[in-house]
What does this fold into?
Amino acid sequence: MQVRQFFCPDCDRYFPERLSFADPGKSYTHRQANGVARRWIFDCCSKQPFTEVGALPGVNAKTVERIYYQQVKVRLDLPNRYVAVRRLGIDEIANRKGKSSYCCVLTDLDRNVALEVLPSRSKTTLIAHFQKLGPGFCAQIESVSFDLCAACYAISKRFFPQAVHVVDRFHVVKSLNKVLDTLRWKLRHDQSLVEALKNIKWDLFKASPTVVQQTRLQEAFDYGPLSRNLVALRDDRRGGPLSSAFRVGSQPR
It folds into this structure.
């Protein structure tokens, strides 16, 4: 909607119209920010990415993320929320955009719900929290998922020695993509006259390439068989459609 703008001759300045149903500078109403709508956004976020949830009511993904974690803090007072946890997720989110300030989120991966939002992901904070939860909680954990943070792995081994320690898929795929892009650049630089190696960057990273793009990639792989192996490995970890189409020695489908 369009918000009217007024001019104050005494102050010699312009100011926007104040709305009774929305705060200044916000893209959502009080009704959407509270009550049923807020709980609906929270429930959707447990099954879909923030971007997809935001597209339904027309809300920015960062706003959806903010609403979600505000609801998490409200629901953290629920008793016995740690009792049924068997698979634990440890991750970080930006506390303040652009401020390099991060907090740590503990998640029940089976129920896909947040358990705790810690002020930081430092070793001191995590150690104090797991010591507070006690050995009973630590003994019931069967697997722990985290990113490539060495501190998380060390803490996980210390408090959950009986568990399976897993690096989450996103960071594995991200690392493989980085290696794949470096190799692509090297092949392109060393064999600059080969047409098949030109303009294939986004074909490599696309989750569902078209038949034409798959054909271009197959032609490019003839000049660098290691690329074929990396793509097959990356897509096996990602679970994408190329995991079977680009196995070593296979033909394009």
Summary: The two ends are 49 Å apart (CA to CA). The first helix runs from residue 30 to 33. Residues 79 and 115 are 11 Å apart (CA to CA). The chain has three domains: 5-75, 87-167, 170-245.
